[in-house]
Amino acid sequence: MEAGRRSIWIICLVWVFLGGICSLVIAEFIRNHSADEYVDYYGSDVFQNAVSVAETSLTVLRTLDRSDNAPCSAEDLEAMRGVVFAAPYLTDVGRLRDGYLVCTGIWGELATPVKMPPRSQVVGVNAATLWKGARGIAPAGLAVDMSSFGNSVVMTAPTAFARYEDPAERLAALVLTSDASYSYQSFGDTEGLAPLLGSNSDWYRIAQRRVYSRCNDKIDVCVVATYDAPALLKTAPLDFLLVLAGGVSAGACLGLWHAHLYREGRSWRQKLERALNDDRLTVHYQPIVRLSDNRICGAEALARLVDFDGTLIPPDHFIPAAETCGFIGQITRSVVRRAFTDMAAHFAADPDFYVSINVASEDILSLEFLDFLETETRSHGLSAGQVALELTERSTASQDSLTQAMAAFSRRGYRILIDDFGTGYSNLAYIARMPIAGIKIDRMFTQALDQQAIGAVIVSKVCELAAVLEVTLICEGVETKGQADHLVAIYPDICIQGFLIGRPMPARQFSRAFPANHHAWTPSPSESAG
């Protein structure tokens, strides 16, 4: 008992732990998704802006390079002023001569040309020459980014990237070339960003750093942006605790459910084990009557489990538990021994009387059960034909192996009946190949006889199948004389079983109601009256 309680506690604790872990993992995925959306929005904005600046600069340079105006002429200066006012990302444009800036759209022709920075600071990108943060060119000593093509030069406005210069905490972006050899702009802490070019964060990968990376197909401009997402516990401790509490609660609920199933299975195992050890498994019998001559041709043995307080536990409760716990074979053997003993007088009085015993597919597939059945049959002085084995149609999933095993029982003379016919999923081809001696129609079709025409059609078709297969047909759940009359009209040799004949009853009551020396069933006056 102590071991059982300990196992239940372990089950609950494991589920609580798993619930907490799963909740945190889910929270991390949600955090990553939010962080990815954040860095994607930021990186995409930087990228679009960088591409616009580059395209504007290149377009202006090519336009000036193709101009027919004489450099620094009045017409040329007027055209350059128009460009400066029209281009949103440029602060000025000018002309170069022999490495000197000689005129600009804003300042006109310079009285003293300004020498451009030395070539050692020049990088060639997109067929243009770039200067980054060059001083001594713009007025007041301002650092300015410039690009030139031919004899034209453009100066990028300081405001072109102004809104990115002070990014939010944990955000960073790097505008660079596709080979990472030149950096146009950098915002935030960009150390280690260049190697991330070409990689993006996978949604399923839990990582603190989320990455956005993209390159333009036409011009050599790329952007790498990152966001170091903070831990949920640091940014929102209350949310973290709520998520954790939710996961733990869900885990606790699952743990209690699992513990309940474990305790129920364990209690059924203990209950079945004690019942079998205490010989509290009993058998009730329900008669089977052949309507053509009202002869009691057999009885079905139905297992009943007596609980501690003396109440009977229905088979639909303990049989599935017995199959799960591995006791079904032991129960089947107990029913066989009990039925052979209880029905001894009927066997002796009528060699054609048989007892029908429900078996599981595991029993049929077991050679040990066949040997056991042979031993019990001989020791009780019975013939194999006085024993019928009922196998539900739902038990025939592995039909090939089951058919072979059934053939072994059939060769020894035992009858094989398909129980609950019509409720399973085996097809007629398999049924036709099975070595069966009879078919039992499920009670739901019998009840449908009084309710709808389709019930009668189904029963009629099963009767035709039984006639073709030349097997016995038994209809379960017959409760009224009208149902019996309907069935015998459809199939004269049909056998019936149900409350019309008698309810399942203990062996002594069965012997009193249906004496061994009296094989005929006589309907009561009320039953005859219908």
Automatic annotation (TrEMBL):
Subcellular location: Cell membrane
UniProt-listed InterPro entries: CSS-motif_dom (IPR024744), Cyclic-di-GMP_PDE-like (IPR050706), EAL_dom (IPR001633), EAL_sf (IPR035919)
Enzyme nomenclature, EC number: 3.1.4.52
Segments crossing the lipid bilayer: 7-27
Molecular function as annotated in GO: cyclic-guanylate-specific phosphodiesterase activity
Protein topology in the membrane: Multi-pass membrane protein
Keyword Ubl conjugation: no
GO (cellular component) term, any one: plasma membrane
Domain EAL per the UniProt entry, residue ranges: 265-518
Record key words, sorted: c-di-GMP, Cell membrane, Hydrolase, Membrane, Transmembrane, Transmembrane helix
Claim: Membrane is one of the keywords in the record: yes
Catalytic activity: 3',3'-c-di-GMP + H2O = 5'-phosphoguanylyl(3'->5')guanosine + H(+)
Name by which UniProt lists this protein: cyclic-guanylate-specific phosphodiesterase
Origin species: Martelella mediterranea DSM 17316
Lineage: Bacteria, Pseudomonadati, Pseudomonadota, Alphaproteobacteria, Hyphomicrobiales
